[in-house]
Amino acid sequence: MKMTARGSLAALMTCMAAAGAASPALADSVPVGVPLDAVETSLGVDTPRVATGVPVPIVGAPDVPRHHTGDLLPTPLLPSIPVGAELGHTGISSPVPNLLGRPETDGEGSLDAPATNLLARTGGVVVGAPLTMPDGRNFGVPNLVAPKLGVIAPELRGAPSALLGLR
């Protein structure tokens, strides 16, 4: 079976529509425990306990370029792409010996960072051609105009937090 340019374009548009229809729901992070038992055994000291989550990024649908009357190029020419992830729960606890110089004041210090959602959006580019649309008053020859160039700034949204504690 021979694939034509029209068939390739139709397949590409179908894939893009399917990707756009899928919601960029955030997935959970993958929990990871940091094994420090060998350090504790070999050095004979209490080691901290560390557990965290590795984020699983989910890529959303890119912004759709829009054509405006009188412009030769779509806006934005390079669309921005959203990427979402969940920063997993992170817990670190470590023994704190002789906090006040007495053994009865031994305790445990901890750092606890709850899971939070993070959304990042890549930058984009807006470019305007240095020519206008064909001008009927100029025998169909386009006129020269000052080219446009713009950058869409990247974006990062989230609210990570951490709690320090001593028990």
Summarize the structure.
The protein has helices spanning about 5-20, 35-45; strands spanning about 30-35, 50-55, 60, 80-85, 90-95, 105-115, 115-120, 125-130, 130-135, 140-145, 150, 155-160, 165.
Please characterize this protein's 3D structure.
The chain is mainly beta and 167 residues long. It has one domain (24-157, 162-166). It is built from two helices and 13 strands. The protein has helices spanning 5-21, 37-43, and strands at 30-34, 49-54, 58-59, 82-87, 90-96, 107-113, 116-121, 124-128, 131-134, 142-144, 148-152, 155-158, 163-166. Strand 9 (131-134) and strand 10 (142-144) form a beta hairpin. It is rod-shaped and about 95 Å long. The chain starts with a helix and ends with a strand. The model is unreliable at 17-27 (pLDDT under 50).
Beta content: 35-45%
β-strand number: 13
**Fraction of residues in helix:** 10-25%
Mean pLDDT reading = 78
The main sheet orders its strands as: 1-2-5-6-13
Helix-strand string: HEHEEEEEEEEEEEE
Task: Return residue spans where pLDDT drops below 50 for at least 5 consecutive residues.
Answer: 17-27
Principal-axes shape call:
rod-shaped
Q: How is the main sheet built?
A: 5 strands, antiparallel
Whole-number radius of gyration?
A: 28 Å
Structural class: mainly beta
Tally of discrete structural domains = 1
Number of helices: 2
- Report how far apart the termini are: 71 Å
Describe the protein's topology.
Blueprint: H1 5-21, E1 30-34, H2 37-43, E2 49-54, E3 58-59, E4 82-87, E5 90-96, E6 107-113, E7 116-121, E8 124-128, E9 131-134, E10 142-144, E11 148-152, E12 155-158, E13 163-166
Antiparallel strand pairs: 1-2, 2-5, 3-4, 4-7, 5-6, 6-13, 7-12, 8-11, 9-10
